[in-house]
């Protein structure tokens, strides 16, 4: 089963001196085990970009999709036998001491990403597809509560090779959050933050610049998309053309 790990950190926290080496070791181990399918840290020096759609307008603004104490700092897509293994993988991540990791299973059916080396003349952006989670309606595989099916095939064709991979996540009720408290791994049910808007899916883009990423996000059917610039990516990871949320 595939799980999407959202890494969040305390923005003003401190890191042990060996964090970078421990992170390299974690990536190497998970890659060797075949657990790690994709992932990247996100640029802390580049502000997120929120693309919001209403019935009549599309607005683009600086800032994250939700104001939370902890900030999204990276992601990983992993393949694990079950939630227990996913928790063990997250629990071994070296950044856990300064934040949390939200574990969310993806909707079944996602193809395994095909490796593609990063292009030197392109930038990678994590596109977090978000929606309002309030209300009692069920979330279907098509998207938000009450939506008609979106023309996702058209959007995927428009994005083309600029979209490396992506998929819809199970609702927040399926989320598990892992933290390290007093040296021990603490596990709680639910997302890392209780906010009105929650991450419902993701896409990884490889584009020339932010303007192109915004254009792709604007063409998506979601009412809210959070764009994050990737800092780097493990060379053995990344994409196909799978459907998104």
UniProtKB/TrEMBL annotation:
Lineage: superkingdom: Bacteria
The record's Pfam families line, in alphabetical order, gives: YCII
Q: List the InterPro entries.
A: Dimeric_a/b-barrel, YCII
Gene3D superfamilies per UniProt: Dimeric alpha+beta barrel (3.30.70.1060)
Q: Where is the YCII-related domain?
A: 20-108, 183-219
Family membership noted in the UniProt record: Belongs to the YciI family.
Q: What is this protein called?
A: Protein containing YCII-related domain protein
Q: Which organism is it from?
A: Flexivirga endophytica
Q: What is the lineage of its organism?
A: Bacteria, Bacillati, Actinomycetota, Actinomycetes, Micrococcales
């Amino acid at each position: 089963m595939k799980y999407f790990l959202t890494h969040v950190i305390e923005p003003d926290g401190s890191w042990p001196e060996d964090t970078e080496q421990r992170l390299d070791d974690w990536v190497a181990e998970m890659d060797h085990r075949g657990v790690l399918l994709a992932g990247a840290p996100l640029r802390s020096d580049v502000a997120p970009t929120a693309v919001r759609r209403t019935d009549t307008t599309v607005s683009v603004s600086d800032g994250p999709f939700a104001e939370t104490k902890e900030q999204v700092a990276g992601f990983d897509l992993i393949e694990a036998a079950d939630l227990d293994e996913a928790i063990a993988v997250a629990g071994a991540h070296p950044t856990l001491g300064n934040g949390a990791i939200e574990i969310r299973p993806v909707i079944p059916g996602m193809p395994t990403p095909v490796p593609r080396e990063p292009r030197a003349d392109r930038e990678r952006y994590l596109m977090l597809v978000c929606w309002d989670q309030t209300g009692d309606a069920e979330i279907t595989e098509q998207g938000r509560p009450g939506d008609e099916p979106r023309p996702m095939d058209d959007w995927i064709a428009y994005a083309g090779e600029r979209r490396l991979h992506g998929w819809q996540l199970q609702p927040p009720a399926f989320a598990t959050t892992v933290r390290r408290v007093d040296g021990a791994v603490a596990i709680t049910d639910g997302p890392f933050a209780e906010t009105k808007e929650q991450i419902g899916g993701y896409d990884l883009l490889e584009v020339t610049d932010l303007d192109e990423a915004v254009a792709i996000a604007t063409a998506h059917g979601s009412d809210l998309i959070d764009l994050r610039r990737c800092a780097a990516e493990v060379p053995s990871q990344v994409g196909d053309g799978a459907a998104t949320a």
